[in-house]
Amino acid sequence: MAGRLGDKCAIVVSDELPTGLAVNAASVLAATLGHRVEGLIGADVKDADGVVHAGIIHIPLPILTAPSDRVRTIVQAAAAQDETFLVNFSALAQSCRTYDEYAEKMTATATADLASVGIGLYGPRKQIDKLVGALPLFR
């Protein structure tokens, strides 16, 4: 998906996760958004000494929290929106030590059986705000 002017990003993690797992979920979702949304990461920049610094995300990326059932509701609502890109992060994914283990377990798990513990969102500001606008920041 290519980045568009006026779009918004957000990450929502379950407020039932311990801090370490919530931070892990948010970092996985942020990395995936940065990889999958073309243009989300800005160009490299130079400082006053000419040292090059890697580009970073060029729009805000709030990390929000919600109860697990609300995270699941957001996943379902976002999936129904054509212009919204989502990354669903499940408890199954978080429990795996390797990507191969994750891929293997996913092939044996129905979508309805995946417990969402986080979601990364990118899309039109209005749609993202409607999904997550009232949620509190992760603290």
UniProtKB/TrEMBL annotation:
SUPFAM superfamilies: Peptidyl-tRNA hydrolase II. It comes from the Bacteria. Pfam families: DUF2000. Signal peptide: none annotated. Coiled coil: none annotated. This is DUF2000 domain-containing protein.
